[in-house]
Amino acid sequence: xxxxxxxxxxxxxxxxxxxxxxxxxxxxxxxxxxxxxxxxxxxxxxxxxxxxxxxxxxxxxxxxxxxxxxxxxxxxxxxxxxxxxxxxxxxxxxxxxxxxxxxxxxxxxxxxxxxxxxxxxxxxxxxxxxxxxxxxxxxxxxxxxxxxxxxxxxxxxxxxxxxxxxxxxxxxxxxxxxxxxxxxxxxxxxxxxxxxxxxxxxxxxxxxxxxxxxxxxxxxxxxxxxxxxxxxxxxxxxxxxxxxxxxxxxxxxxxxxxxxxxxxxxxxxxxxxxxxxxxxxxxxxxxxxxxxxxxxxxxxxxxxxxxxxxxxxxxxxxxxxxxxxxxxxxxxxxxxxxxxxxxxxxxxxxxxxxxxxxxxxxxxxxxxxxxxxxxxxxxxxxxxxxxxxxxxxxxxxxxxxxxxxxxxxxxxxxxxxxxxxxxxxxxxxxxxxxxxxxxxx
Length: 441
What we know:
441 residues, rod-shaped
């Protein structure tokens, strides 16, 4: 969706009249004025739009439209000049701003709002050739896609310096645009400065993938990242840190102290990291952040967040695992501890499995000539001289109605060579059904 908003304030600054305000004039001048002290100064225009009226948290694609009311050229032989548009970093007052001051009491850092990085953002928004004229009675300057906050203080429009003329002593290269006062009392005249805005993505939901394992916060959620070793010092790569104004410029000069790095362990309340050192810049907007054994002492999710003035917040999520798990899966220097209980969730079954491998297999058969066996107790052809020698072992039937069935032996009696199993068999075993016992104690 595109909308057009009109300037709410505009004026121009002229070097050869450094204390004069032109906020109520009908023109906006840009260029170089004959009689200025040198060819690198001249006339600059300031325009502010009501960006608060725009939908918040959106990237906006902007086109600046300026209606041409006139042009004045003397010795216009100039080598490829341009009119450039920048975002102001400080506010101006329409009715008191002059070449020397941005309001009634405050000087520009450099006259003419000429100080890059202080008076205006040095990142160029857009430009047009000058003094070439468009076919239409207006200029349209593409300002690209930006965050609306970037132009909240207004726009600075000025010629590109240095200028070179055939005769430096007599020259004028000046263009006049209609101001909001061209038609007195209106703010929506089509000749007023206009900003044509097309809405883009909601930058509060933009996900920036930092690498294959590190991610920014996405729509209020988290994407799991690297695996860390419990209670072990580590240095993390945190970033990229991006400029809050345009959302894409890399921030390489941040001071990220211990207190700026917040940790949340296993969903706990955020607190500063324990390791005392500040982060150090690496490259491509990434900083190295050191954690110590205390910082990584809790198994589970570890969320690391950094909020630093001038940069978008950066959040990373890690999984802290026990040292033995990390050494086995990540480092490859150990083997995982496993428990046989996990096979069936039964400690006795685990003991039986242990005995199976430790003590071997005993093969035998059922002794049930008188059909006295039940589905839990039956006599065998085994020979043993004490009770419960097979207790805790496992039995598997090889033949008969229970073939392939495993059970745990809960007791054994030597007087009748009988076994008691649990749970019950599917069928009462028949005489001479064969079985094997694993893990005889």
